[in-house]
Design a protein that fits this description.
heterodimer; A: alpha/beta; 7-stranded mixed sheet; 6-stranded mixed sheet; 12 helices; B: 5-stranded mixed sheet
Chain lengths: ~425, ~575
């Protein structure tokens, strides 16, 4: 029976993928089947104590929920951005029994991704509908970032003299930024209905979720974020990543810049001090670069606000301040977000994904009464305080978690223990 | 050790700007990379090259390769009395691009020539900003579109990367990039507190000043000016005077150079010159939020300086009555252009000694430049009114002098007129001994308007001998003196300093103040140039900026700040630290 009017309640499943995101939203209606959407499915580091088959187990659980509550249908998949920790679960395999194959078998009706993932936003394509030239150039820059991530990963893995801490962090961040072709292809092929969204665009979820108000608050397009200013700066940025990926590719392919030049076989004593310094500099520079790139990718993240009656659910993916600042600068948006009821903590609780003054301070429901619900998917051991090269950038940020615990009903996937796959939050509208 | 039979200076050939600027030596011949000669202090440098101030190590951290340097046969020089061959002069373009030893030599020569320019302008030896006599230079440090000075590593590091067309781009072959990074290192040696977190203008100054020195160094080479003039006159020996107005020269020289510079290098330097030249004079930029980021704010400074350069050039041509003729001798025009660049370069560098040691803003630098020049050239009308041109152009971009002093000249620091105690100190010691100078300062603390409860420290005492173009010499002693005060945010109010919104009472705040004292040749104090520790207006502005941009976070302590600055410049980064946790 077709459901009508608005949903009566929601079951939010926050899966413990480790360091990553996977949220399944089941909207329950008075009549008819549930409407189910999956927001992200990926991880970079699996949680301790779980089986190796964790992602497949989660995919099976998602399928089981769909089979039980929704006639086997997954109404929509939202892939907030292209980072591994948000899409790796969509990876398929040759045997067709990978976690991505299982999700695809749920035949999602629509896949929603940020505008930067538009398949025609490719190098050299001038005809992609709805995309400005600078928009395409930016999408091209994202591809360059993927390439750069691959080469940074290779360099950190093979170079001598990189400090272990730095090398590990480079590998972590760079690896998260490499392109996962299998997952990307699967997201493209699992349905014919794709929406590539941006600030204030249609979400593509309207049909899937009757009675639910959905607002896309990010990412902004280049045109939106730059206004009418011709984006010379964007050209600079795009070129920057093209040059970086070119430099990285060169190193990956060549062993030496000047093949015929005379070289030392061993570092002579008089040069050792400086060579050691330079190796350290290189590792730190590379780390800085991969973090900048990571931020760019995060800022392509979709920000979604679901509204049912007076209940507002905010899912910002990994959006960082640069992405947020556009929406928060638009008329009425701060007001709109004041009374959020549930906040999915941005970017696994990192230092710059929950704008402190412009967003958090404005939440009316926060406070010791804990009317605000917050949910975070994170894993503290991946970027712990003592290991990150830059102080104050541990994930989740301890200061933020303390504020969340003190001022909201706080839920963290990190509190789950094997074999629990997820925590279920029930929200009545 | 250099033989007395050898000259004091050595001429070395370098790539004039970068390998993308090519010229034909004769009609019909293929274009070749434009080269130029620079004059540097002569020394029998060791392989590297390694000299008394520069040590080149050609280590590439991306490929883990250390290249072997030239084995210059310099030991024969003292016997023969002749200088060794000049490898870059004799190299083909293909060799220039493919031999790392030539790259090392190019970088060495530009670093040394930039150092020599500073030492000439300031009339004394200049130390690096770290405890070593030699700066390390890595011409192929890593595969990265970046180049930077690192104080911590005592080094200048130059990256390389393939251009979109596949050709390799070497930042060590770009004259402006090498001069820019060397300038950062030299300014750091002269004013160590200019790299401290302060106002957006102090960081902008470091970047803008390095740009100005780099660009004027390039324009001071007659070969470069000659090549760029070719855009207008196509090799003719005469140039129509109608093409030598300020607007035409701006288009041909500044925009011309911006277009000619290797476009791939924008990954390293951004479009600094193009953006600055395109900034039409307006007093509004300085107030706009978009120009608050240091890398953008520096563009305003560069714009004013480069507009002044063109105007000085035109003024020199006019002053010689040359523009009344329909056609001008090309060589004369070229020499006047290079001369104008040289003059402004020297004026700019000389100004550093007349800046306060902390919290520099553009207004301070303008007053410093006007005062330093006036000390050497007291006659305002002589030499075509350079100071008026500078003042006019800075004002046109909304940068007013720091002093409202109009006498004897607008914008010049006011001379100290108060009675001071000299009889407790000795003239000889006052020229070199920080303790003796501190005694003088202490005896005169009220007259010098010091904040008495702060930690106070003389950080340098530098005697110098400056030479004006007309041979006039000026002896001065420059003293840098700083004051530091540690307090809690709640204590700021007692100094009438505003506490930024959201700053907790217990927040530790460190305030700096500082004086630059200029003594004349008789040991009498001429100028007391200071940013007072208890200047509530400036300190409030500074504390607010630092709080909003997150500089009170201990993690923001600068590690390779120039690398970060250049990256931010390439990516047009805007900090939003106040929103972070």
């Amino acid at each position: 029976m077709a459901n009508s009017s608005k949903p009566t309640s929601l079951t939010l499943r926050a899966y413990n993928v480790g360091f990553g995101d996977c949220f399944l939203l089941s909207f329950h209606y008075k009549q008819g089947r549930d409407r189910i959407i999956l927001i992200d499915f990926g991880n970079k580091h699996a949680p301790d104590g779980y089986k190796k088959s964790l992602m497949v187990d989660i995919a099976k659980d998602i399928k089981n929920v769909c089979d039980t509550d929704s006639d086997g249908r997954l109404d929509a998949v939202v892939a907030t951005h292209r980072h591994q920790d948000h899409i790796s679960g969509f990876t398929t395999n040759e045997k067709k029994n990978g976690s991505g194959d299982i999700i695809a078998s749920c035949k999602p009706r629509v896949v929603v991704q940020p505008w930067t993932e538009h398949p025609k936003a490719k190098p050299g394509d001038e005809t992609a509908p709805g995309l400005t030239f600078s928009g395409k150039a930016f999408a091209q820059a994202l591809d360059h970032m993927n390439l750069f991530a691959e080469t940074a990963l290779a360099e950190a893995t093979r170079r001598k003299g990189f400090p272990m801490m730095g090398a590990t962090e480079i590998v972590n961040v760079a690896d998260n930024n490499t392109k996962n072709k299998s997952a990307v292809d699967n997201l493209y092929n699992m349905t014919k209905s794709h929406y590539y969204v941006y600030y204030n665009s249609k979400s593509g979820l309207e049909k899937a979720l009757p009675g639910v108000g959905i607002r896309v608050l990010g990412p902004p397009t280049i045109k939106q974020s730059e206004g009418k200013v011709k984006a010379e700066r964007d050209e600079d940025k795009d070129q920057f990543w093209a040059l970086q990926s070119g430099a990285g590719r060169f190193c990956a392919q060549q062993n030496s810049l000047f093949r015929r030049a005379h070289k030392y076989r061993e570092i002579p004593p008089h040069a050792r001090w400086f060579v050691n310094h330079l190796r350290l500099i290189r590792s730190q520079e590379l780390l800085g670069l991969v973090h900048v790139m990571d931020g760019y990718m995060n800022n392509t993240s979709i920000i979604l606000l679901f509204t049912v009656g007076k209940t507002k659910l905010l899912f910002p993916g990994d959006a960082q301040i640069e992405n947020w600042s556009y929406a928060l600068g638009q008329p009425g948006v701060t007001e709109l977000l004041k009374d959020v009821s549930l906040y999915k903590v941005g970017h696994h609780g990192s230092t710059n994904a929950t704008p402190r003054k412009a967003l958090w301070d404005k939440f009316k429901n926060k406070g010791p009464a804990k009317k605000l619900k917050t949910v975070i998917s994170t894993m503290p051991d991946v970027y712990p305080a003592q290991k990150t090269a830059k102080k104050g950038t541990e994930v989740p940020r301890i200061k933020l978690v303390n504020a969340l615990k003190a001022n909201s009903e706080f839920h963290s996937t990190n509190n789950l223990k094997s074999p629990e796959l997820c925590e279920k939050l029930e929200i009545t509208f | 050790m250099a033989s007395p039979t050898l000259p004091q200076t050595r001429k070395l050939t370098i790539i004039a700007q970068d390998p993308s600027i090519k010229v034909r030596s004769k009609r019909g011949q293929a274009q070749k990379i434009l080269k130029a000669e620079v004059e540097i202090p002569n020394e029998l440098f060791a392989p590297g090259p390694t000299g008394y101030r520069v040590q080149v190590f050609d280590y590439d951290a991306s490929t883990d390769t250390l290249y072997k340097p030239f084995e210059h046969n310099l030991r024969d020089e003292p016997q023969s009395g002749r200088l060794a061959p000049d490898p870059i002069r004799d190299a083909s373009d293909a060799q220039l691009l493919s031999d790392p030893r030539l790259h090392a030599l190019n970088a060495y020569a530009i670093v040394m020539s930039t150092l020599a320019r500073f030492e000439f302008a300031l009339g004394r030896r200049i130390s690096w900003g770290f405890y070593s006599h030699q700066i390390r230079v890595a011409p192929h440090a890593f595969a990265d579109a970046n180049a930077f000075y690192s104080e911590r590593d005592q080094a200048l590091l130059f990256g390389y990367f393939p251009a979109p067309d596949g050709k390799m781009v070497f930042s060590c072959l770009s004259h402006d990039v090498v001069a820019h990074e060397t300038t950062h290192a030299l300014v750091d040696g002269l004013r160590e507190h200019f790299t401290d977190p302060s106002s957006p203008e102090q960081a902008a100054f470091h970047e803008g000043f390095a740009d100005v020195v780099a660009l004027l160094s390039v324009f001071s080479l007659t070969n470069v000016v000659d090549a760029l003039l070719d855009l207008n006159s196509q090799g003719s020996n005469r140039i129509a005077s109608s093409k030598l107005g300020a607007a035409s020269l701006r288009d041909s020289m500044l925009l011309g150079l911006a277009e000619q510079m290797g476009t791939e290098m924008t990954g390293v330097r951004g479009h600094a010159l193009r953006r600055s030249v395109n900034l039409k004079p307006s007093p509004d930029y300085i107030k706009q939020k978009a120009f608050l980021a240091p890398h953008r704010r520096g563009e305003i400074f560069v714009a004013a300086m480069m507009q002044a350069f063109i105007e000085v050039w035109v003024q020199r041509l006019k002053g010689m009555g040359l523009l009344t003729e329909k056609y001008l001798d090309r060589q004369r025009v070229v020499e006047e252009g290079a001369g104008a660049a040289n003059l402004l370069l020297t004026m700019s560098i000389r100004a550093l000694d007349y800046t306060p040691p902390v919290h520099l803003e553009f207004c301070d630098f303008l007053s410093a430049m006007l005062t330093a020049d006036r000390e050497l050239r007291p006659d305002r009308e002589s030499k075509y009114g350079y100071r008026d041109i500078l003042l006019k152009n800075f004002k046109a971009y909304g940068m007013m002098p720091a002093t409202k002093n109009k006498e004897p000249e607008e914008g010049v620091w006011k001379q100290l007129r108060r009675t001071l105690v000299y009889n407790q100190t000795h003239f000889e010691s006052m020229q070199r001994d920080p303790d003796e100078v501190f005694r003088f300062i202490w005896e005169n603390r009220e007259a010098l308007e010091l904040y008495q409860d702060a930690y106070s420290h003389v950080i340098s005492v530098r005697p110098c001998l400056r030479v004006a173009p007309d041979g006039f010499t000026l002896r001065e002693t420059v003293v840098e003196f700083i004051q530091t005060l540690e307090l809690k945010a709640s204590q700021l109010k007692a100094l009438k300093i505003s506490v930024p919104k959201g700053m907790p009472d217990k927040q530790d705040v460190r305030l700096y103040g500082g004086n630059t004292l200029i003594f004349d040749e008789y040991g009498r104090l001429k100028y007391n140039i200071h940013n007072r520790l208890d200047n509530a207006t400036r300190q409030s502005r500074r504390v607010k900026f630092l709080w909003e941009y997150g500089f009170f976070d201990p993690s923001e302590a600068g590690v390779r700040r120039f690398s970060s600055m250049h990256r931010q410049r390439a990516l047009n980064f805007v900090s939003r630290r106040s929103e972070e946790w």
